[in-house]
Amino acid sequence: MTARVTTVAFSGINTIPVDVQVQMASGLPAFTVVGLPDKAVSEARERVRSALSAMGLALPPKRITINLAPADLLKEGSHFDLPIALGLLAEMDVIGHDDLAGFVVLGELGLDGSVTGVGGVLPAAMQASGMERGIICPVDNGAEALWAGALEILAPTNLTMLINHLKGTQILSRPIAPKVMPSPVSLPDLRDIKGQESAKRALEIAAAGGHNLLMSGPPGSGKSMLAARLPGLLPDLDARQALETTVIHSVSGMLPEGGLIRTRPFRTPHHSASMPALVGGGHRVRPGEISLAHNGVLFLDELPEFQRNVLDALRQPLETGQVSVARANAHVTYPARVQLVAAMNPCRCGYLGDNDLACTRAPRCGEDYQARISGPLLDRFDIQIDVPAVRPEELDLPASGEKTQAVRDRVLAAREIQSYRYKNDHVLTNAEADGEVLQNAASLDEGSRGLLQDAARQMKLSARGYHRVLRVARTIADLAGAKAVKRGHIAEALGYRHMVYRR
């Protein structure tokens, strides 16, 4: 009789059921794993053999074949260890074949028989729940599996505990309660930034509407400080967004505490990041930084220092909200709806426009440096601002201005307005509104429409740039509590497109 254990393989954040078939037959002793396994799966036989040996069990001198069906699907990861081991134990009559019929199983085995944590337990538990099955997973992932509402969750510390439970000599308790990842104890306050009132205003607008933001200024002007304070202005994730974000981090193996993520991600990759690191991919296709920042903020500091082809790879995901990674052996899609925030110096030395500090190659050095950012990518930043150097006399002044909480209250109020406005349009923020939805939301009068059209002709705005100005103006109106977009709102929004105009 062939033992069968159900587990899963991953395609992006989706799961595919895999049938682990274990057979022991007469013949020369051998242990073979077939079904397109990768190196980690092929090495499972040594981990499984050692784990059984630690329990005092030895594999019989037979021809052992493990088939992972469907056989034409690439199997990756170490989570196949536990289902293979349980299939072998069923074939050896240590446990019954029917004991495993109602479960989806995944987990990595240590050489001492311990069951260690793996990535992807949350989507696997969601798959098990859809199949009306329970799930067997490592104890480190038990709380994570609770969020999927699986019928029964077994989260053993080691293989012996699981066997005893299946044989009825020990009871594995269900994980007590699902965990929520703790929020940061304290976030940097907006009040700590001295001066830069216009930049703070732009940051508030970006937070209220979910707009992409580009800051340009000399070193030490506070660009990174401003970006670091953006998460404190944003609302927490709702239930659907929290589940989406947690699933991506689970598949990436970056959910060590097994808790639901409720705060918006804030990812800050270094400018040396490769294309697979930023947009996803690699030999074993994994989510990139833009997917790990899904429903949150992706901050790119020193923007022109990134490789140009890497930056241009962000253009499509910023429009579609997802990344499609195509390989010869895989085609994987990851969610990637992010708020892009970037900072840059005006030139390589950083002091273009300062007669005392600028290099002798000015303004050519600034033109060459800024040309590293393609026009189409620059066009995708809704708000583009200059952040000037802070004057020395301002640095000696005590902290002043509004605290983060006061600004956050206005941002949340504007988000509530947008939530109500777009409740039937599958849109969350003004930055996502498009087409007829945006036209209905903006509701321009004749004066506002004339100003926007005249400015679009003079500034040679693209169709994308035109609509981005409209979205920003709608957000400015929401912050002011205005039902219609007025000329003043359009004028302020146009002021945030000057970097494209200068080109």
Mean pLDDT: 89
Tally of helical runs: 22
Q: List low-confidence stretches.
A: none
Approximately how much beta-strand content do the residues carry?
15-25%
Assign the structural class, choosing from mainly alpha, mainly beta, alpha/beta, alpha+beta, or little secondary structure.
alpha/beta
Note the overall shape.
elongated
User: Roughly how much helix do the residues carry, as a percent range?
Assistant: 25-40%
Q: Main sheet, how many strands, which sense, barrel?
A: 5 strands, parallel
Determine the N-to-C terminus distance.
73 Å
Give a verbal description of the structure.
With 503 residues, the chain is of the alpha/beta class. Helices cover 37% and strands 16% of the residues. The chain has 22 helices and 18 strands. The chain has helices at 39-42, 44-54, 81-91, 121-130, 142-146, 159-167, 197-209, 223-228, 239-251, 275-279, 289-292, 308-312, 315-320, 364-370, 375-378, 392-395, 404-421, 435-442, 446-459, 463-480, 487-494, 498-502; strands spanning 3-11, 14-25, 30-34, 63-69, 103-105, 108-109, 115-116, 134-136, 153-154, 179-180, 213-216, 259-260, 266-267, 297-300, 322-326, 331-335, 339-344, 383-386. The strands form six sheets. A five-stranded parallel beta sheet has the order 13-14-17-11-18.
Helices and strands, with pairings:
Layout: E1 3-11, E2 14-25, E3 30-34, H1 39-42, H2 44-54, E4 63-69, H3 81-91, E5 103-105, E6 108-109, E7 115-116, H4 121-130, E8 134-136, H5 142-146, E9 153-154, H6 159-167, E10 179-180, H7 197-209, E11 213-216, H8 223-228, H9 239-251, E12 259-260, E13 266-267, H10 275-279, H11 289-292, E14 297-300, H12 308-312, H13 315-320, E15 322-326, E16 331-335, E17 339-344, H14 364-370, H15 375-378, E18 383-386, H16 392-395, H17 404-421, H18 435-442, H19 446-459, H20 463-480, H21 487-494, H22 498-502
Parallel strand pairs: 3-4, 5-8, 8-9, 10-12, 11-17, 11-18, 13-14, 14-17
Antiparallel strand pairs: 1-2, 2-4, 6-7, 15-16
Helix pairs in contact: 2-3, 7-17, 7-20, 19-21, 20-21
